[in-house]
Write a structure and sequence with these properties.
- The structure is a homodimer.
- Chain A has ten helices and no strands.
- The first copy, chain A, is mainly alpha-helical.
- Chain A folds into two domains: 54 residues, Arc Repressor Mutant, subunit A, CATH 1.10.10.60; 121 residues, Tetracycline Repressor, domain 2 (Orthogonal Bundle), CATH 1.10.357.10.
- In chain A, helix 8 packs across helix 9.
- Chain A is elongated.
- The structure holds a DNA duplex.
Chain lengths: 199, 199
DNA sequence: CGCATTCAACACCGATCGGTGAAGAAATTT
DNA sequence: AAATTTCTTCACCGATCGGTGTTGAATGCG
């Protein structure tokens, strides 16, 4: 990668095109998104796509990264809340909101992008599973820290609490894909955190 | 359809073959399961498949029905528990178990079969969404009945409670697809039902 | 200018997709 | 046994899959 550009610069906004690709993967899943679907949505040719992003798997990885920094940014934001309970509340509220954003696909790219897949989608499926596991580890580490700070009872199990909260978020994603509203899902989030920490 | 058979009878067990097809759809999703994958697992030819089950969509519908009567039978069983709380407990315990059955694909066919899909998988996706919605309606009706029987408080919202319980089950399915164990998920179920009914 | 690089567009690649047509064997009827 | 029907096997269909090679114009650099 050179700092000084040589040759004709690309004639499209790489970030904007990636955003379009993200939405196609989000709505149709990795295997359900064909190169034709992608290039038409991104407004570029196949050649430009491969030159700018690599192959389909690479594009999917970059789209997921973009998702994490965009609609999925509520995760890192929630982790910075002052107390463990506020972390959980912000995480689930953000989940309810991000999974039902108007004008964007319903649900979560990290869940419906490739939960089950054939041979061609196996890499994408594993990438997403690892991504979800990573998010759960971030929650667990945050709850560990809360135990040490006395914010959670000494006997609390951070891994178990993280799994509990993440399971709700996963369920919220499936519900959103089925048409549940943000209010519906916020009610679920409230109910799930009614007793805290979960036994 | 005639009662008396005419001509050569089929040379394979249609129920056993359907079970195999169910497992392929379960593990690979609708779009990820090719006809070659299906026929190889079922041990029959393409021609036999089309003669016996129709097309791929029809086969998927029959596989889902088979799933509901087999690994998914815990749903109807749970609905028969004597109290609303026992219904919810049996439903989530069954979910934890059915999503982690040894020797079978992890997760739930109704969730990972086609959460997001391209054009070719749109029908399958809608079939599954309707299937999940139907299960949620069964829960809602059971909880309505519990309110009338005084088993749930008069102010309880059956629809909200059903959505809460189903959201946990959906999350359990995603967690199972990511490798969570039955014990992990049973802990989540216990925590989710710690306060009942959910506020 | 001239070199280098990327642009857009399009045909094309082998492979695979879901789905069928043809042909002969096999089993049940009368 | 003859007739009928469905079986199985295999090749094949057009379409689409992800990915590439080519071409000629456009735009940056030195």
């Amino acid at each position: 990668m050179h700092t000084s550009q040589i040759g004709r610069p690309r004639g499209f906004d790489a970030e904007a095109a990636l955003e379009k690709a993200m939405m196609v993967f989000w709505a149709q899943g990795y295997e359900g998104a064909s190169l034709t679907d992608l290039t038409e949505a991104m407004g570029i040719s196949r050649k430009s796509l491969y030159a700018a992003y690599g192959n389909k798997e690479d594009l999917f990885r970059k789209a997921l990264q973009r998702y994490a920094e965009g609609p999925g940014a509520y995760v890192t934001e929630a982790l910075q809340a002052p107390t463990a309970r506020e972390v959980a509340m912000a995480f689930l509220a953000g989940s309810a909101r991000a999974n039902t954003l108007p004008g964007l696909p319903a649900g979560c790219l990290g869940v419906q992008g490739a939960l089950a897949a054939g041979e061609t989608g196996r890499v994408a499926r594993d990438v997403l599973a690892e991504w979800r596991a990573h998010g759960q580890e971030l929650l667990r580490d945050r709850f560990r820290q809360a135990v040490e700070a006395g914010d959670l009872p000494a006997g609390a199990d951070p891994e178990k609490i993280a799994r509990y909260v993440m399971t709700i978020a996963n369920g919220v994603a499936v519900q959103a894909a089925g048409g549940a509203t943000c209010e519906d899902l916020q009610q679920v989030a409230d109910a799930a955190l009614q007793n805290w920490p979960p036994a």
